[in-house]
Design goal:
mainly alpha
């Protein structure tokens, strides 16, 4: 039984990797994740060491991506910043996904009940505010910092996650196998955990992948505005902000961290798009 399950998973993985979008996205995200995990070994210089003699130095053999306004190595700061930016994105998705699954599952399963109405009205209120604006308000109350930034963006992401989960649960619970589970007397908890959620995971995981890119962009934006991670801690958004005063004389200070942000968001978006094609046959047929 275990061998058969492992073989099915291997076949599924092989089929997924044949999708060019999934393969490209996995390569990009894996490279960034590896950079974050091995940051201590990959950094060629101390990312916090100030050397004013090398201030705004262009890319060279010593500093491959140049130095910033305080003479700190940009490549080292980008590498260590990947740990911060990706850590925030992962925390955001885990927080909003957990709350979204709980609220969306019960709201969808008991569609039309007072619980569904209450959850949806709260989500409607949260959806009134753009995600970045809501996160800014929360950070204005709690103050900047890694944990506060993660919680603020996570709260701003709960409403869309809840709606996606609710829609997936409503779609799955109309299938005959759910009716069969009810007919044989399975409990509501068993039906939700063993029948509905496993069959609703595809759209949920696809959306979670897309939200990782959004979380990276939100974190960088808020740090750029001075509301997120604070100096001297390296974070991609802060690095872009630090170099905006020197765009004419040293464009590399902002350009390289900006390119990494773009690559991270692009990688998550392409991976999510590929997963959507893979799990949704209608989309796959329409595209070719």
């Amino acid at each position: 039984m275990a061998m058969a399950s492992a073989n099915r998973n291997l076949v599924l993985l092989c089929k997924m990797l044949r999708n060019k979008s999934i393969l490209f996205g996995l390569i990009v995200i894996s490279a960034l994740a590896l950079m974050a995990v091995l940051a201590d070994r990959l950094m060629p210089h101390d990312p916090l060491k100030i050397d004013l003699e090398k201030r705004l130095q262009p890319p060279s053999s010593e500093h491959l991506l140049g130095a910033d306004s305080l003479g700190r190595d940009i490549l080292s700061r980008i590498i260590l910043g990947s740990r911060v930016s990706l850590g925030i994105a992962l925390g955001v998705v885990l927080l909003s996904l957990t709350v979204g699954i709980i609220l969306g599952t019960f709201s969808g399963y008991f569609m039309g009940s007072w619980l569904d109405e209450a959850v949806m009205r709260v989500m409607d209120i949260l959806m009134v505010f753009p995600g970045v604006l809501l996160a800014m308000v929360l950070l204005g109350v709690t103050g900047p910092g890694f944990l506060n930034l993660t919680i603020a963006i996570g709260v701003a992401s709960i409403a869309p996650f809840t709606r996606v989960v609710r829609g997936a649960v409503i779609s799955v619970k109309e299938n005959m196998y759910v009716e069969a589970a009810r007919a044989v007397g399975e409990s509501t908890q068993s039906i939700i955990l063993r029948t509905i959620l496993p069959n609703a995971l595809a759209p949920i995981l696809t959306y979670a992948t897309l939200r990782m890119g959004v979380a990276v962009l939100y974190a960088s934006t808020l740090s750029f505005l001075g509301l997120g991670i604070q100096p001297p801690n390296p974070e991609w958004g802060i690095m872009v902000s630090d170099g905006r005063e020197f765009l004419r004389v040293a464009p590399h200070v902002s350009t390289f961290p900006g390119l990494v942000i773009s690559m991270a968001v692009l990688g998550f978006n392409i991976l999510g798009d590929g997963l959507n094609d893979f799990f949704n046959p209608r989309v796959r047929e329409r595209r070719g």
